[in-house]
Amino acid sequence: MTSAQQHPRQARATSKSQAAYDAVRERILDRTYEPGYRLVLQTIADELKCSVVPVREAIRRLEAEGLVVFTQNKGATVAEVDAELYLNTMQTLAILEGSATALAAEHISAADVQAARDLNEQIRALLADFDPAEFTRLNAELHALLYSDCPNTHLLDLVHRGWTRMDAIRVSSFDAIPARAQDSVKEHAELIEAIAAKKPAHQIEALARAHRMHTLNAYLHAMGQPPSSL
Q: In the UniProt record, does the keyword Aminoacyl-tRNA synthetase occur (predicted)?
């Protein structure tokens, strides 16, 4: 068999693996599979109507992202909320996303700035009848608009990895600190207008970093812990 003949088979295998990854990841993020849920490969394969192989590959990818953990007695389970991981990831994102947002500000289009304003108004509308899950979804979309034009692809990859690690625990954090949401909307507006006004990069970086740290410290306060030293 020639290499050209092998490509369709390889493509199908990749497609099945990606489909399994997307399905399992979505179930973790929407909490169909809650923290601590045991991921039985054969059961998931039966649900997805595929073999165990693509499911195993998907679970390995999710483990690398921090959404799945392996233990000797249980096998693969959905990662529990880890307070230390939350602290470390939020501190890291404060630095990385702040820098990425500042670099992106030089390249962001007027249309994307307006789209960010519109998203923030959608988020503001949620405050009257607070929905943590929808708030989190729109919040992530808004931040992605602000940092995605960062020309440093390595930095952008690190930011994406940080958001991936945060995905499984962000809803629970805003459940714990619903009052933080109102201040978050105000800070979004300040950051967006600083970008629109072409403020210096160090000012934009400082606003983006402070925004992340305010959320972290609000969560730590709600958990009865001291504020971050960063």
A: no
DSSP tag of 184: H
Number of other CB atoms surrounding residue 1 within 10 Å: 6
From first to last of its 230 residues, the chain has per-residue pLDDT tens of: 444 444 444 445 568 899 999 999 989 877 788 888 999 999 999 999 999 999 999 999 999 887 899 988 889 999 877 778 889 999 999 999 999 999 999 999 999 999 999 999 999 999 998 888 788 889 999 999 999 999 999 999 999 989 887 876 655 567 778 889 999 999 999 999 999 999 999 999 999 999 999 999 998 998 889 999 88
The predicted model scores a pTM of 0.74
Range list for CATH 1.10.10.10 in the chain = 16-78
Copy the structure tokens of residue 138: 């729109």
Question: Domain 16-78 falls in which CATH fold?
Answer: Arc Repressor Mutant, subunit A (1.10.10)
Domain range 83-223, its CATH number among 1.20.120.530, 3.90.480.10, 3.30.70.260, 2.30.40.10: 1.20.120.530
